[in-house]
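User: Hi! I'm working on a homework problem where we have to compare a predicted structure to a textbook description. Could you give me the structure for the chain below?
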Amino acid sequence: MMTLKKGRMAFLPLVMLLLLSFSSAHKYYVSVTNIAYSKDDSAFQITSRVFIDDLDKLLKERYDIEAKLATPKESKLADEYIEKYFRTKFAIELDGKPVQYNFLGKRYDNDMVICYLEIPKVKLSETKSMTIQNEVLMDLFDDQQNIVHVKWNGNKKSFMLIRQNNKGMLNL
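Assistant: Happy to help. Predicted structure tokens:
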């Protein structure tokens, strides 16, 4: 009887190791971007939520800066490089024409960076289509997914962009 109990005890760590390897947390790479038309401002207001650690890693690998986002030691260059990165990876076209957006800044919410962008002076009544290209973090993570929600005049459309399909278009 004693030998059987010792055998079980020796087997238990192996079983635990196997169980833990199957239940370990999987890292998901997701950003969420909300685009809403403001009648009061005649502008598309954009918020893009990205995980702090992912953006920190990207800034280090792409620009070789230790941004240390959301810490007391955050680099003074962080905003400049975040804006620079967004301008290379996030683009919007209205009626097939590229439009410029203003990078208004960022703030932190728990483990997320929320970036604020705006496309000013948009006459929605004259705008027929919008194309969004969102490649944020796709150059760092193969399985990055960027969810985009667009709201205008009581309508809402959503789509998910991945590396192989990084553009979405909708008729306004």
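For your comparison, note the following. The longest strand covers residues 30-38. Residues 1-9, 14-26 have pLDDT under 50 and may be disordered. Good luck with the assignment!
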